[in-house]
Design brief:
Helices cover 84% and strands 0% of the residues. By secondary structure, it is mainly α.
Length: 211
């Protein structure tokens, strides 16, 4: 059962990575972009859920927490594309609550690990926990100010989907780049791609990218 789930996890991850490349390279809002985005979202859903299943079958709370983080990125990116009026529904609030709780847990666990000096894992938990909790709180703040629509909605969609791509690349690196230090493998894609997300978001909000 574990081997079958692992195979499905890897297959979905490869599919997600390929679809992400097509979506990023195609005209935003076009048919190819939408189809690649739908495939990416479905593949990432399978990847994330299978990761949660694997982390339960072979108990690994660390991977379970990272799986929730990855799923939240893709879920909120997909919702930003689907909910055109920018008004949150129950599912959006539920997703934010799960991420907020997971983020607090990751910060607490990471902080405890830092005090005991147990390697790179606590640092990874602190970084991903802080990012996830910040995003969940920022979502509620933005919703309280009014609908997240127009360019802001598109910027959120692109930013969160690229964030999900970071998670996919990170997973591929963890599997294939074990000779590198853990912090480089786990946080390298985040450090390298996050500036691209900020740049692309700025372009969208200024109207430099057609949506």
């Amino acid at each position: 059962m574990i081997q079958t789930t692992l195979f499905l996890h890897i297959l979905a991850g490869v599919t997600a990575l390929a679809a992400a490349g097509i979506a990023v390279g195609s005209a935003k809002g076009g048919r190819l972009h939408r189809r690649a985005g739908n495939i990416y979202t479905l593949a990432m859903l399978v990847t994330g859920l299978s990761a949660l299943v694997l982390s339960v079958m072979d108990p690994n709370p660390f991977l379970f927490a990272v799986g929730i983080f990855s799923l939240y990125l893709v879920f909120t990116g997909w919702r930003a594309a689907m909910v055109r009026d920018g008004r949150p529904r129950l599912a959006d609030h539920a997703g934010g609550a799960v991420m907020a709780l997971a983020g607090v847990g990751m910060l607490g666990w990471g902080g405890q690990g830092m005090l005991s000096g147990s390697g790179a894992q606590p640092v990874i938990l602190l970084v991903f926990g802080a990012i996830g909790l910040t995003m969940a709180l920022a979502d509620w703040r933005d919703w309280a100010r009014g609908p997240v629509a127009g360019k802001r909605r598109i910027a959120r969609h692109l930013g969160r989907m690229l964030g999900g791509t970071i998670a996919t690349i990170t997973a591929a690196g963890v599997v294939n780049l074990g000779f590198l230090p853990d912090l480089v493998v786990w946080l390298g894609p985040t450090v390298l791609i996050t500036p691209v997300i900020f740049w692309w978001t700025a372009r969208v909000t200024r109207g430099a990218v057609r949506t």
